[in-house]
Structures are given as C-alpha cells and as structure tokens.
Specification:
The protein is built from 20 helices and 19 strands. By secondary structure, it is α+β, with helices and mostly antiparallel strands.
Length: about 600
C-alpha cells in the first residue's frame, strides 16, 4: 500500500478516469470522476462503503489515472476502457441478446426492408426493437402483403427477370422494371406510416384480401391473412392510450441489495409497449447514481437512442443528456417521473427490477462459482504462478491432413470472450501431424505478443486440447522462445486428466468440481470452433471444385455463387429463382446448375 499512499498525494483535481489494478497488474475496475483527487481517495478512507466496493478494495495493489478535459470525456473513456479491459468489478453488458429492428435506406431509388440486429450510423432508418412476442418476420410479411415493398438486395437496373414474389403479388419487382420510382415511393411512404404505428390502412387492406381469398375458396391464403390481422390486433392492444403516439421512450429502473444489482428496461415506441428486459449486474460503484449512469451509457452503445429516457431521480441526468448530445449528436430527454402515467410506468419497471433481483441472486452466485471462483480454485489446485484471468485454449482439426486448421478461444475470468477468438490455417505442416500443427499455431501466437500486444494481450494460462504429447510439443516452443511467465497445461479427453509442466504425473480434478467444468467448457469450445472453421473451408473447397465442372461458370460467377451461398448444401437446396438472383446468373444458367447438381451429386 506504500505505492498507493504515495500516488494518492499526487492526484490532480481534474476530471478523468481511474484504473484499479490487482497484484498481477490486471485491470479489475475502471471508474470516472469529476475530481480525480476526491473520488480515488474515497476508496481508501476508513468510511462505510458498499459491500462490493469493500471486496474490490481488498484486491487493489496499484492504480493509474488518465486526465480528461471534461466529465463527459471521462464518461466516454470509461465506457471504452471497460469494453477493452473487461474488468471483473465493472458492469459489462453482453451483446448477444439483441432484439431485431427493421432497416430501410431511404436514399436508394427503390428501398428494401430488411431485418437487422445491429444499429449503425449509416443514414438508414431503423424501426424497433421488436420484442414481447412480436415477430419481426411477420411485420415484414405484412409490409409485403399490403404494400408490395421488396426485401431483396437485387440491383434495380430493370434487366433482371421478375421472381416468384412478383407473380404471387407480394413484390412490385423494381429489379425487373415493373414499377416506376414514383409509384414505388408512394408504397414506401405507406409502409413507413405503418411502421410508425398507423395500422388502419394495413388492417383494411388485409381484411379486403382475406375476404377476396375466402370468396375464391383460397382458404389457406385467407387463413394467413387472418393470422396477420390477429397480430395487428396484438400490436394495437399494446398501445398505451394515454401516451403521445409519437413518443419513443425507454423506462429504466434500478434495484440493489448492496452486493448485487438488477435493472429493468421497458421499451415503448410510438406509444406502444414493445416489451422489456432484465439485467443482473455485478458491479462495484460507489453509489446507485454512478451504477445507473454506467449501465445507460453501455446499454446504448449499440442500440438506437430513444427520444426520452424515464428513470429514477438518483440518475446523473445532466451528465447523461450532455453525453448523448456530444457523442451521438442527439438530444435525449431524461425524465425523472414522479406523477402521472410515466411515473406508473417507472413503478412497473421498478417492481420488475426488484422481482428479478430477488429471484436471480442464486443464479448470480452460481455464475460466480462457475467463473471467477473456479479460476481461483484452479490456480490453487494446479499451483499456477498467477490467477488465470485470461485463458487461451488451442485445438487442431483436419481429415487425413487435408484442410488443416487451428483454433484459439479465450475465456476472461471464466467466461467466453468471443470477440477475441482467432482461427489459423496451417501453412507449413505436411500431412496429419497435430503436434507440428500445434507448434506452428503457438509460434505464430507468441510472435504476436511482441508485435500486436493490443489485439493479442499476453495470456495468464494456455490450455492445450490433448495429453502429454501435445503438452511436450508446445513446451518446446516455450523453451525456444524463452517463455516463462505464462502457465501451460493440457487436458486429456478420455479421463479428463490435467497435465502440467511441473509434474510427470497427471492431476485428476473431481468431476463435480467447477474448475474442471470450466476447463471442459473452454476445451469443448476450442474443439467446436476448430471443427466449424474446418467444415467451412472444406465445404467451400468442395463447392468451388464442383462449380468448375459446369460449362458457363467462370471465376467471377463462381465467386458470386460462393459469396451468396457459402456451402454446397445451400446451393443444392436453392431454387432456380434464388440461383438466378446472383449477379451474372441467367435463368437458363441457373437451370443448368440445378440440373448438373441433381444429376451428379
């Protein structure tokens, strides 16, 4: 603590970001401060602190700080550093549970309507998110059925042959020149009005088409129209009649028991309640206001901003508003609701957050046992030189030495970090030699430590899928490169034995032990990732060689087919119309491809 005491005396009174480090120099917490001197000193005063903060302080061995011009800059930098370092005591929202949006680019002559889960600053309009039992695909079908707008990306040069959607009356076929730009723009305008919550015209059109189909005894299509009408009724039922139909608002409530926290987010768009999501948080903020601010900034880093956020009075209202205005060039009203409908919505969100926290505490504790606590236990059982915060696991995949690939998967504090996964094509090894392939992959990985440590940080522990032989092969690389500050083990599948560099004998961890289950998860993930990459390469090579046999398919058309369908199975199951959508493939050539594949495969 002598180092910390000396640094505390030198802290400036500027705004900025502080970075807490453990004994292994791992970043365990990142925070922002209006006045660095005051905030950082609070952690080391003998005052009452939240339990999670006290646990974190016990692990602090050093800290750094970065001065920023304003507190808004500090908030932005804090968000970036949290994503970069993934500190164990910070809120870190996962991106895997994202709801779908409908995207349309109005700058195009003939805009198409597509589903996406990623919001980009690309000038397009996004509608959503669609949640709470509303299927985004069904919404698109309604747009096609009622307004004949297109979903495909086919070039609209008027040279293509119209597809099946045109013939069944659900697309105006601008790609085939069947509709003028002005007429199509009129249909797009109606479709946009529908997405903005005006369902009346769509409802009437669907009703008319349903009755027409029933009169023509086309009962299957009539039933489809009936189901779409039922979904429109479901959408209308979600409308909050007392809210302005033009208001897009998210309602965010926070609950905490001092150790764990939860947030509930309710989403309303165009006055319609879309649904809600719960988030379990495991953070060490000094107060609820900071925790809520950190959640909000991370939550909207990859989502469309609403026009209004309704949240509790302890939120850092002005800071959040200024942050959104400066960083996203959008004015977002932060409303602290105390009366009326907005207050009732906030109360609903708060009740949901409280309920979720109460029911999820055991789940959070179990997750800790499976991840951070499992890492600590693994260090003890295997006598590792350091806490295995960043673990990398390697596997090799091939069939008889063909299309050899390697995989690297990364776990941080016991959880998969999929953005850090890497794949390797084996370049120097002849035949099926897993030992030599592992050596090549590890050589390439270790070489990146010196040249690209930013993207490839040094791991604390490297795990090899295999037994003694695989471990020995990698030990040779460690010796050659003089690597002595990274722990190395292997996990043999048959008996689930762990081999280390410190003993000739294997270590058997109890099968019910969470640390073994964690090793099995990372090993199985490395195997899955390697197999997936191998199948991809193998399938593409087979597809390319098959296409070479078809007259009329040159390099350009072959690449276009590969880009659209990626695998042989997908191209075989494609219809003639789908094949003909590929640039350069005429209906006649599509028929030829189909015939060849059916006759020869």
């Amino acid at each position: 603590m002598d180092v910390i005491s000396e640094k505390l005396k030198l802290l400036p009174e500027n705004p900025g970001v502080y970075i807490m480090l453990d004994e292994y120099k791992n970043v365990i917490y990142v925070g922002k401060a209006r006045v660095l001197k005051n905030r950082v000193r609070q952690y080391f005063h003998n005052t009452q602190k939240p339990e999670k903060v006290m646990k974190m302080v016990e692990n602090i061995r050093d800290f750094n700080y970065i001065i920023t011009k304003t507190e808004i800059d500090a908030l932005a930098l804090e968000n970036s550093l949290i994503k970069k370092y993934k500190p164990k005591y910070n809120i870190l929202l996962k991106d895997d549970k994202t709801y779908p949006y409908i995207k349309v680019d109005l700058r195009e002559d003939f805009p198409n309507f597509t589903i996406t889960r990623k919001i980009k600053k690309d000038g397009c309009r996004y509608f959503g998110p669609f949640m709470g039992g509303i299927n985004c695909g069904d919404i698109l079908q309604i747009l096609q059925l009622t307004y004949n707008v297109r979903q495909c990306r086919t070039k609209t040069n008027g040279k293509k042959r119209e597809c099946l959607n045109y013939h069944i009356g659900i697309c105006a076929a601008p790609c085939a020149g069947k509709v003028s730009k002005e007429d199509y723009a009129g249909q797009v305008k109606k479709a946009l009005a529908f997405l903005d919550g005006n369902y009346k015209s769509a409802e009437q059109l669907l009703k008319n088409k349903m009755l027409a189909c029933a009169a023509a005894e086309n009962f299957e299509l009539a039933l489809d129209y009936k189901n779409k009408l039922a979904m429109l009724s479901k959408l209308e039922a979600k409308r909050i009649t007392t809210l302005n139909k033009y208001v897009d608002a998210d309602i965010i409530a926070y609950a905490s028991n001092g150790l764990y926290s939860a947030v509930n987010v309710l989403v309303t768009r165009k006055g319609i309640m879309q649904g809600g999501s719960n988030y379990a948080l495991d953070e060490a903020h000094m107060n609820d206001g900071e925790a809520l601010t950190a959640f909000i900034t991370q939550y909207y880093s990859n989502r469309e901003l609403p026009s209004e956020i309704i949240c509790e009075e302890f939120c850092e209202k002005e800071l959040i508003q200024n942050y959104f205005k400066e960083k996203f060039s959008k004015s977002v009203e932060i409303t602290v609701a105390k009366l009326g409908d907005k207050a009732r919505l906030l109360k609903m969100a708060k009740e949901n957050a409280d309920d979720y926290l109460e029911k999820s505490i055991d789940k959070i504790k179990h997750k800790d046992d499976m991840t951070k606590n499992a890492c600590k236990h693994l260090q003890e059982q295997l006598s590792l030189t350091r806490y295995p915060r960043r673990m990398e696991c390697y596997d090799i995949s091939n069939i008889s030495g063909v299309d050899k690939v390697g995989s690297m998967v990364v776990f941080i504090d016991g959880e998969a970090d999929r953005t850090s996964y890497r794949r390797f094509k084996i370049k120097t090894v002849e035949g099926a030699n897993d030992f030599a392939s592992l050596q090549e992959v590890l050589l390439r990985r270790i070489d990146r430590l010196a040249t690209d440590a930013e993207k490839f940080p040094k791991p604390d522990l490297i795990i090899i899928d295999g037994g003694k032989g695989q471990l020995s092969a990698v030990k040779e690389i460690f010796a050659e490169k003089n690597i002595n500050d990274i722990d190395l083990i292997s996990l043999a599948k048959r008996e689930e034995e762990v081999f280390t560099c410190n003993s000739e004998e294997s270590i058997k961890i109890l099968h019910r032990d969470y640390s073994l289950k964690m090793l099995q998860r990372i090993r199985d993930e490395a195997h899955r990732f390697a197999i997936t990459y191998f199948r991809n390469i193998h399938s593409k090579r087979n597809l390319s060689s098959v296409l070479n046999e078809i007259d009329g398919i040159g390099k350009v058309k072959r690449l276009a087919l590969l880009e659209k369908f990626t695998t042989l199975d997908k191209i075989m199951s494609a219809s003639i119309e789908q094949l003909a959508e590929v640039e350069g493939i005429s209906p006649a050539l599509a028929q030829k491809i189909k015939n060849y594949l059916e006759e020869n495969l």
